Amino acid sequence: MPYSIQSTLQELLSNEQAKAVIEKHMPGASTHPDLPMAMHMTLQQISYYPEAVQAGLTQDKLQAIDAELKQLG
């Protein structure tokens, strides 16, 4: 299954390689207290929330995450 920022957080966190990419760019994301509310959202959708921007999820970072996720086999 190809991964991208269009994958849900649940899909990404269920794969160890994809989870590692998320943690690399957003340390602590997989244990964030609000995680259960976002599991069925994509990273693209999450990036529109002000809290995500405040946490450092910029468009540049989002594109870097997307590029790494797409390389996972």
Number of separate structural domains: 1
The count of DSSP E runs of length 2 or more, i.e. the number of strands, is: 0
Assembly type: single chain
Class by alpha and beta content: mainly alpha
Low-confidence stretches: none
Mass-distribution shape: globular
Element string (H = helix, E = strand): HHHHHH
Mean pLDDT: 92
Number of H/I helices: 6
Radius of gyration: 11 Å
Question: What profile does the largest beta sheet have?
Answer: none
What share of residues are in beta strands? under 5%
Helix content: 55-70%
- Give the distance, in angstroms, between the N- and C-terminal Cα atoms: 8 Å
Kindly describe this structure.
The protein has 73 residues and is mainly α. It has one domain. It starts with 8 loop residues before the first helix and ends with a helix. The protein is built from 6 helices and no strands. Helix 2 runs antiparallel to helix 6.
Write a brief structural summary.
The chain is built from 6 helices and no strands.
Question: Topology of this structure?
Answer:
Blueprint: H1 9-13, H2 16-25, H3 35-38, H4 43-46, H5 50-54, H6 59-71
Helix pairs in contact: 2-6
Keywords for this structure?
mainly alpha; 73 residues
